[in-house]
Amino acid sequence: MDHPRWDPIRRNYGMDDFRPALAACGIGATVMVQVGNDWTDCLYGLQVAERDPMIAGYVAWVDLAEPERARAQLDELCTHPKVVGIRHVLTMESDLHWVMQPKVLESIAEIGRRGLVYEVTSDHLEHLDYAATLARRFPDQRFVVNHLGKPPIPTAGWEPWAGLLAKAAACPNVYSKLSGLSTPPREGWSGHDYRRYVEYGVEQFGAARLMYGSNWPVTLVAGAYERFWEAMGVAMQGLSAAERKTILEEGAVSCYGLNLPAAGGAAP
Known about the structure:
The protein is α/β, with parallel strands linked by helices. The protein contains nine helices and eight strands. The chain has a single domain, classed as Metal-dependent hydrolases (TIM Barrel). Helix 3 packs parallel to helix 4, helix 5 runs parallel beside helix 6 and helix 6 runs parallel beside helix 7. It is globular and about 50 Å long.
């Protein structure tokens, strides 16, 4: 992340930075997702989530490589109602097959036993491929593929991404986020760039297993939050009103089991 394009996020961000954008887009609640594979960072994020009523859920981190420690951390996290899932940033691991280690699989099973979602970061095609493997191994757990599996926007080739996403979507316990499509940034990007990918996601998952996600503040490297929100509206123009409502308002609530006021949905 040494490239100047990342300069907009080389500082700390908090909810006071985010709140004006949420208000401008009419979003009433959000899901906060951990950013580092670190227990101290996880607990800090949990404190932030618990203090802010706009954060409806928190996707935390545990040490998946050490099952006993993971169990203890999960026991602690499950005393906090806002914890709805667990994520490990796989791109921070040099081994592309890290998630398939027996100890990691043992810990993922513990996540499912507690009714929490496990999120699959999918910056590499190998990671996207493992989403289906995990979903089949643990059919009673819910899994979320981040960023629609990082489609090859705009011209890197439709396959193998499309086939791997379809393989994941064939598992009824897999959901996906329509997030992160604008990063890394490209000159002159617009919502029209994403339309075929969004429509393919709906074709594979159905609207009920998709959810809008902002990827804020990382999305700021490509422009303001409001710009990505408007772009996603363009990308979803070919969908029905019911499908758009499901993705924008209901998907995250259903997947994470959020308890929200009647005012509206939440965006991760």
